[in-house]
Write a structure and sequence with these properties.
By secondary structure, the chain is α/β, with parallel strands linked by helices. It is 54% helix and 8% strand.
Length: 490
């Protein structure tokens, strides 16, 4: 029998050897071969699975693959953080499953059949979301921003517990201050989503938006408007930062953060102060060390002032006070700024006052709460949360939320008002399914809207209303992103 030529003889044209004889030791230098030859060697190996693993783990091949991806990113000027996007790794996984010789889709295929197919998939996803809107309602959020051409744009998004989808974008540069035109834009969006589906609309709290929101409530009696909670809390923190005793400390942050695992869009000064406070001991050790004393930095005027502050006990005492006063508010901001869960029921609870705080801080909190955030929908969300309603000590602090709930019931109930108020009396005490031990155990561990799904069947009218309210969000900030791509649309 004629001996099979070595695989190296086929490198020039990439063909496969004519029969199956091969030397297993060849895997030590397999990177010299074409993909077709490597595939043949893998298939013909007696231990195919371990060999495949060894091939994929080869550092040289991995480096070649990584470099090929990097060259493409650099050549087309794609930001490197695009690797963090949702569809990047699935694309790599799909390529891995293809056989050698796979050709990527052409430009014509990408902007033709594949684009149409993806648009169809998006429409199907949107239809799934719309079915949820019909069942439990949704929140329309208006995210206003200004592009590099100084145009004022509003992006409308629709939130439900399953997720948020983009609806439309409008250039309102000519109408950003016109209440009538803003109202018209909001009304058109509500009609598009469906008046019966929209429970809540969230916008910024500029005066023209406030008035347009109130007009919208008159036009659609079952709809509630409120300002973005995260934006309002950010304004509170800004006002607190202007207080003399706070500004003296906050100015040392220069509006920047000490290096953190992730950037935070709001409350930067206070979060930076938290970071500085956490490094108090390390900073003091550093500025009193021999290395610092002998460094060139120590002789600079700024460095001397820095050392003076670090060694000043009064500075650290004030830092502690400022952080303690503002930390609860920053926690609320993080909560409402998250898309992880609906936060409607949390607003009243989280703004529970601590009367030992400084009066100036309370005035800022109370003014913003009373004038902007104290809404009937927020009060109803609190009242309908079993974890709060059945906690006697907790609920007694917020008895006034009952008024907000009754106002919401009157809007929704119409002829069934008496029936729903009677159901409210049943729910007021842990009766029926809400009195089950399982319900009492779960009221602090599952989402309140899910609690009503599981245990609210005994009060069906209230159940439907509670699920609609507790499934909403109270902020538009969770929908914010880099909207620069929309500059090419308008």
């Amino acid at each position: 029998m004629m001996k099979t030529p070595p695989v190296q003889d086929y490198i020039g044209n990439g063909d496969l050897p004519p029969d199956k004889e091969f030397d297993p030791g060849i895997f030590n230098t397999y990177s010299e071969y074409t993909p077709k030859q490597v595939t043949w060697l893998i298939k013909e190996s007696s231990g195919s699975q371990p060999t495949l693993k060894s091939v994929l783990q080869n550092k040289e091949v991995i480096r070649r693959c990584d470099l090929a991806i990097a060259k493409w990113f650099i050549d087309v000027s794609i930001p490197f953080n695009a690797t963090n996007l949702a569809y990047f790794q699935p694309m790599i996984d799909a390529l891995y499953n293809m056989s050698p010789g796979y050709k990527a889709p052409s430009m014509h295929c990408l902007h033709g059949d594949l684009l149409i197919s993806w648009v169809d998939d998006v429409h199907k996803l949107a239809d799934d979301y719309r079915s949820i809107w019909k069942k439990i309602g949704c929140t329309v959020t208006a995210d206003g921003w200004t592009d590099r051409k100084r145009r004022t744009l509003i992006n409308f998004l629709v939130y439900c517990p399953k997720g948020t989808i983009f609806l439309k974008s409008i250039d309102v540069s000519h109408a950003s201050k016109s209440i009538d035109l803003l109202f018209k834009f909001f009304k058109d969006v509500v009609l598009r989503v469906g008046p019966k589906n929209v429970v809540h609309i969230v916008t910024y709290n500029a005066t023209n938006y406030v008035v347009a929101g109130r007009l919208l409530e008159k036009e659609f009696p079952k709809l509630f408007w409120s300002p973005c909670a995260a934006y309002c809390i950010n304004l509170m923190l800004q006002d607190m930062g202007k207080l003399v005793e706070v500004s003296e400390d906050v100015k040392y942050t220069s509006g920047r953060d000490i290096i953190r695992p992730a950037s935070t869009r709001f409350a930067t000064n206070f979060i930076a102060l938290q970071s500085i406070l956490a490094q108090k001991d390390a900073l003091r050790v550093m500025v009193t060390s021999k290395e610092w004393a002998s460094s060139a930095y120590a002789k600079e005027a700024k460095a001397k002032k820095f050392v003076e502050q670090v060694l000043d006990s009064g500075f650290w005492s004030k830092c502690v006070d400022v952080v303690k006063l503002n930390e609860p508010l920053v926690c609320v901001l993080r909560m409402v700024d998250s898309e992880d869960k609906p936060t409607m029921e949390e607003m009243v609870k989280r703004f529970q006052r601590n009367t030992t705080k400084v009066e100036l801080y309370l005035k800022i909190l109370d003014h913003c709460w009373d004038s902007q955030l104290h809404k009937n929908l927020h009060a109803s969300g609190y009242w309908l949360n079993p974890a709060y309603r059945y906690n006697k000590e907790e609920f007694e602090q917020h008895m006034t939320t009952t008024t907000g709930l009754l106002d919401v019931i009157e809007r929704y109930a119409h002829k069934d008002s008496q029936l729903r108020t009677s159901e409210k009396r049943i729910y007021s005490n842990p009766e029926l399914d809400f009195g089950r031990q399982a319900a009492l155990d779960e009221q602090n561990t599952i989402m309140p809207n899910q609690c009503w799904v599981s245990y609210g069947c005994g009060v069906p009218h209230s159940q439907k209303l509670a699920i609609r309210i507790l499934s909403q969000t109270c902020t538009a900030s969770g929908c914010e992103r880099n909207w620069s791509v929309f500059e090419h649309i308008h």
